[in-house]
User: Fold these one by one.
Assistant:
Number 1:
Amino acid sequence: MKYCNASCKKKHRSKHNKDCEEHLRHATKLHEEEIKRAAELYDIELFKCPPEREEDCPICFLLLPLLIMGSRYQSCCGKTICSGCIYAMDTICPFCRTPTPRSDDEVIKRTQKRADIDDAKAINCLGNHYYNGLLGLPQDRTKALELWKRSAELGHIQTLYNIGIYYRNGGGVDVDMKKAMYYYELAAMKGYASARYTLGALEQEAGNMDRALRHFMIAVESGHSGSLTNIQILYSQGQATKDDYLKALQTYQKYLVEVKSSQRDQAAAFDDRFKYL
């Protein structure tokens, strides 16, 4: 209703105040129900299981180990190859037969060349190097964030997790947990196990044990050993059932069978960094 002035509006308030209050309560209730339903729908998406398999080694065709040192990105051809196949070939790339780079400068040049043709993994690697100041590059976390966002736009899932870490740690910016959670959840929904584990750990810290357990159970399917350890802790504290722990243990053992090979065992025996257990 329109009024000619404030005095007229005040004078008429008693005639419609009750109706307005009722309308406001009704609108507020509807809004709260919409928010609750939106949260429920989001949780359905958040806790969907990721794809059963992510990526195989292009040489031995076995599932790549989850542990970062269990595989290596090759800046010569852009392939990610398991530690066993790299160990077997020693001084050359198992895929393209290019000699292993002999200096940090050569690694950076090769990686930059791959990044220039929009190789998302190469762009992510450059971002990692700038973030930590590695291989002769200056530490520039603003540059790292730019590279990670570009890599994410090209579809590299791990980069989403890196961006989450950036905002959680305040790398060059103020800490922003809302943005960090957004990127962690985005990476988890796309199947990145470390992001899923991180969400579980954060829920565990907050006392939300049911949600933590759900995250850990999904992460174990991708071979995340830390999630199995946390499920064991929840079980010992009475926050998870025996069946939960048994299922997680069986799932993790199945993963170990999938990633195991004699060459990978030899690589692990040669260098502890290659161990994936």
Number 2:
Amino acid sequence: MEITNKTVIDNLNRFIESAKAIDMSHSMEMGMPNWPTQPPYSYTDINRLDWGDESFHRSVTFSEHTGTHVDAGAHFVKGTPTVDQISLFQLMGRAVNIDATKTAKRGDYTLEELKQWEKDNGPILKDDIVFFRFGWDEKYGIKPEGKDFYSDWPGISSKVGEYLRDKNVKAVGTDTMALDADGTDYPCHEILLSKDINIIENVNNLKILPKFFAVIGFANPFKGGSGSPIRLVAFLDK
């Protein structure tokens, strides 16, 4: 007997017909921001149609943590999953979009602020994917522009990290270079990644998204890797 998966296919088609997609990823291109100790994105043309070749392709070099990307547990915590071991459903689900734009440079969004946000908007739930919008994507730019993106970014406090860990969310994201504020020793990386809660950084377009939406993202399965650029997509009702 042939298995057609008709229910899944029908549901997917209805979803596609009813949804609007918003790209939350920055384009991968020369001159894009990169962590200072990591190699920048670069490419070399190998074959080109205007050279008379039969096809066009490039050789590409970049860090696992380039552009909009996900941190695997192994990025900071020994013995935790590598990026190829992240579940295909891990970066898929209800997204929570928290406006943290009033946070000071190098400051922390506090647990008190988060609890007040929940009182005003509704609770963060198990398996949510929580994003903090600091407005830093507006500073993002291709060199020589975008120099302000590289320093003084804010983050979330360790108490917020612990609170989200205890909520058993799937992932926590930010539009900055790192979830922890510039100049810290990355406490939330340890707190979240040690419990298989992934971190998503350099997120784009949070400003145009509502407080709750559906999100899907997939990591490249780099064998034994610490992270991966991702294509992160928000879905809204049409």
Number 3:
Amino acid sequence: MKVVIISKALVRGVYQRTLEEIVRLGDIELSVISPPSWKEGKTILSLERRFTQGYDLLVTPIVFNGHYHFYFYPRLSTLLAEIRPEVVYVDEEPYNVAAWQALHWAASNGAGRVFYTWQNIRRRLPPPFSVIEMINYRLANGAIAANTDARDILASKGFARPVWIIPPGLDPDLYFPGNGLPGPEFQVGYVGRLVPEKGVDLLIRACKSLELPWRLSIIGDGPEREALAEVARQYDAADRVTFRGPLASTDVPAVLRELNVLVLPSRTMANWREQFGRVLVEAMACGVPVVGSTCGEIPQVIGEAGLIFAEGNSERLAERLAELQRDPELRAKLARLGRDRVLQNFTIARIAEKTLEVFRSLSKS
């Protein structure tokens, strides 16, 4: 079975590990099409070739890099015509031009076709994106959704094809626990974009009330970096808050293992709420206790393996952090529960198996 996966997300090396697992588990000839880089704000994510065994990684230019809705691949049709796949999987929302490119070619050439959606808020899209979305609904044989809200939104918009719920997965051999030895400081961490919806300002405020000594490591980049540094100064915490820039994806596990707790303090905005929170799964796999807000999918990802606080409530977040700071036995318990939860639900082996089932179904349709 010839399959093509088209994905800008696969510029990150750790995401490529699932591809190797798909090839290992299935009788499949896999080609992956990726851009040479992807822009997230001012950050340029260059392609990391980390896990590329068993499949062809084809790198091709894109136009309008960084523009999620209307970027496209000028050579995509040529590449697909050379490969002649039986199944085309485009890792894009259905209202994107790149998704239309892939689905249109696949429909015109008799290949099975599926798109991926994270979208957990029903949006009224302006033309031409609303038109593109409806066209792609007709072109696709099915969809893969990252969460149940995304599946339900597809149904509410009239998408009547099969929808498979497959969240992201990771390699537990890359994300593994450290030695767990306590350091002199209580290490709190955040990894992700520095934007208002991620609620990092709440985390700084919550940490200020912790007993000394503590340290907060903020790992990532974004337009809010300077504003967050100012928040730290306002709370007289600048000497305890460290800003570290974005990391190569394969460097993240080692940094997570340095933490006593990983926090994802996201808050719902008018046009956004947390769609998954991959860093939570990464931290749990590394045996790091997690604290997350009630925003979007976070409580479902954490389950009983971490602590939850009401989004936007920095006082309640501070209480949760204080619980963990005072109670090493609670930290150890959550570390075990988190690792177990990942092994049961979020490994690349499970994700690869589910994805292969989709491909086999589409190759017969």
